[in-house]
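Exercise: predict the fold of this chain.
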Amino acid sequence: MLAELSSELIVEVQHTANLLVSKQRICILTGAGISAESGIPTFRDKQTGLWSQYRAEDLATCAAFARDPQLVWSWYQWRRQLVSDKTPNPAHHALAQWQQHAGLKNQPLTIITQNVDDLHEQAGSTVTHLHGHLWRNRCSQCGMLHNGANNKNSSNSITSNRNSANNSATAHHYNEELLNCTDCGGYIRPDIVWFGESLPIEAWQTAENAAANCDVFISIGTSSLVYPAAGLAQIAKQNDAKIIEINPNPTPNTVVDVTLAANAGMVLPALVKQISGLLS
C-alpha cells in the first residue's frame, strides 16, 4: 500500500503513525469525501436526470417539504435508490479495523460522521451521525421514528430493503407514494437534518465530548471550515489536541498540524497498517 503513495506522502504517513501510537484518545470526523470514493455523489455535485433542474439546497429544507412534500419525498427515494448498491471502500474498512483494534486495548477511538449513508456501519464501525440517517424516517409533525417506509412493495421495511439492495446487483424501485404517520397522520419524511435545522442534541454532545477529550482530532474528506462541525476541530485544538486532515484538497485552516493530501482510500489503509506494525 505504501508503494502506491508518493515518497513525500510515505514520509508523512510514517510521521503521522508515529504520532498516533503515542496517543490514547482519537476523535475522527468524516465527511462527503470518504463516501464519494464509494461512488456516492456529494451535495456539491450537479444533480442528474430528472433532478438536474433542482439544487440540493433547495430541496433539503423544511420549507420545501411543507410546500411540496411529494417532490421532496420523491427526490429522497431517488437518492436512496442511487445509494442502495454502494459499498464501503478501503477507507471505511481501515477505520473499522482501527476502531476494533483500539477497543481491544481500551483506547477510545470515536468516529463522528456528517454523512447520512451507512457505509461506516457496513464496514463494522460504531459511528455517531450528526446529520441523520438516509435509511430511517420520522414523522414531520410529531417526530415519531419510522424504521420502515421504503420497501418497493410495501411501506414497512426500509432496513430489509437496504440490506437486500446490498446483496443484489439489481437496483430496487423505491416507492414515491407519500406515507402517513401511524400515530398522528402527518407526512413521513427522511430522518435527516435539513438546512436550517439543529443537529440532534445527543449526537452533538457525543461529538463535543469526544473532541474536547481527545489527544488527536482527525478530519477526513471534509472541509475544516464549515460549521457547526468545523467547531469540533477548534474544540480539540483548544484542549491541546493535534489536528490531522486527510483530504486531497486541503483546506486553508491554521488549526491543522498535519495534512495528508490524498484520498482517504489510499492513505488510511497505509496509515492503519503502519500503526499496527508499530504496536505489534
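Check your answer against the key: The first helix runs from residue 7 to 21.
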